[in-house]
Please model this.
Amino acid sequence: MANPPQVETVTSGADKAKLAAAVLLLVGALVAYYGLSKQGPWVQWGSLIVLLAAGVAAFFTSEHGKALIAYGHDSWREVRKVVWPSHKEARQMTAYVFAFVVVMALFLWLTDKTLEWVLYDLILGWKR
Model:
């Protein structure tokens, strides 16, 4: 058996700095929001939105952010390849599921009552 190749993730110092900056900006947004409460809601919300946007922008310029964007593009491409059922097929499958749930519920109820009767009435003799 051949060993699978090991994948190593190489993260540069600049990329780590971008991630650290993103985290610091997000924390700074929360600190600014609560710290500027006396300045009024416009300053408070403005600082929150600006710092959050800067943190998100810093994250998306890092390799992890670029990988997340690529994953989103790949996912969207796969969703477009899906063959969705027609309205009639979706209704039929929903009806089948509901019918199966009802039949299963009746089966489990009947099994429960049968086991209850066998255990409590016949074996233990605890008649009600």
